[in-house]
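Message: Just now I want nothing more than another pair of eyes on a protein record. I am handing you a single protein, as its sequence and its fold in token form. As I understand it, each token names a local backbone shape. Take your time, and here it is.
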Amino acid sequence: MQSEIETRLRERGVNVDNLIQAIQQFKVETPSWGYGNSGTRFKVFPWPGAARNLREKLEDAALVQKLVGICPSVAIHIPWDQVDDWEEIKVYAAQLGLRLGSVNPNLFQDNAYRFGSLCHCTEASFSGLFLQDVLPLIEREDMSDRAMVAYLAHCFFEPGRPRPSIETLLHAFLPFAHIDHTHADASNYFACAENGEALARDCFGAELIWIPYRRPGFGLAREVALEVRAHPGAKLVILAKHGLITWGDTDADCFAETLATVAQARDFVEARLTRSEHAVFGGPRVASLPAHERRTLAAQIAPVLRGLVSTEQRQILQFTDSEDVLNFASSQDAPRLTTVGAACPDHLVHTKPWPLLVEWTPEQDSKALNAALRGGVGDWRGWRHWLSYLPTPGAGWRTCDCQRYRSHWSRTTCCFPAATIWQWTSCCCTYGCH
């Protein structure tokens, strides 16, 4: 007799035997902070009996591996796990049947970030509004942002709560118990493409509601709600130049629907990539330097660049030279794509619309790069607070911000998605954000 989940998987065309085999091969890398005096990477929260050093964390990890059998590696975090002899630690881990995994920096250490962690949410982390006071607003035809914010301030069930988001009504007006609003790379491929609606309908069919671009606020919230009412068979909403909305009766259903939607979008995009006759980013404009030369060059120019961007406020630099980043920075289309605007909403919030593409090629030396940086940053001096990431042909990207976690955020959640979205749209269609 088949279980319900097995039946549903087979209805979707999933080979259950292959899925079970894949699950059996699945491995999880546990974080070292999970064994020590730390609740999350955001803040240390002491508890009795916690491991006191990396050796003790590895011993606890070995016990977990013995019990579950799918956790053969441990991710370490610096400076929490700093030791003098790494070779000795690697040998000790092997003796325990483990290996050292990824190496991560410790970010988000301020007390304020405790409430930013999903593992340490409290009631004080949320606005907390009376829904019955919010829902009647949908009957209005228009409402300014100022009036909306003032009204919502009277809907708190307890004074002193955090101010509601500009997108509060966008979520509150939808008639579902659980709602996900995400900016996944795959769904933003449709949202950011010039012919995104046609592509999205080709992918999702009648299950899609497409909303043309509109600035977040009351008008967008009401339009989405009315469209959902008018299309009860819909399963997702794509907001042009914005993001994805999915829903479910339970948090598990909602999460599963989000994952399935993003996976469907990614499969669609990857299939188009394999059929595309267009070169990624128009093909290479310059050849990338070898890895060791890129890192040497990055170290040479770092003090100069940090000084240039720190004249008003001290900045922290992050460097990356991943394959996607190099393909973009070194491409024929990079000069055009860096001027057309943000690839996703996270850019508008964290990195601003336009990067500075450094006018330099690998055939030139580090002195020429220094000169190019001085000239480029100087041209941006009037709006320096918008200069937060700098692709360099053949050499990688640098992100900068006055706080380490925001510089890291720009690198991992903005620059990487930008390169991915630009890659997909350059191969499959036309990038349409302005």
Q: What stands out?
A: The first helix runs from residue 4 to 11. Confidence is low (pLDDT under 50) at residues 382-388, 402-417, 430-434. The CA atoms of residues 46 and 242 lie 40 Å apart. The beta strands are 29-31, 73-78, 99-105, 178-182, 208-211, 236-239, 243-248, 316-320, 389-392, 396-401.
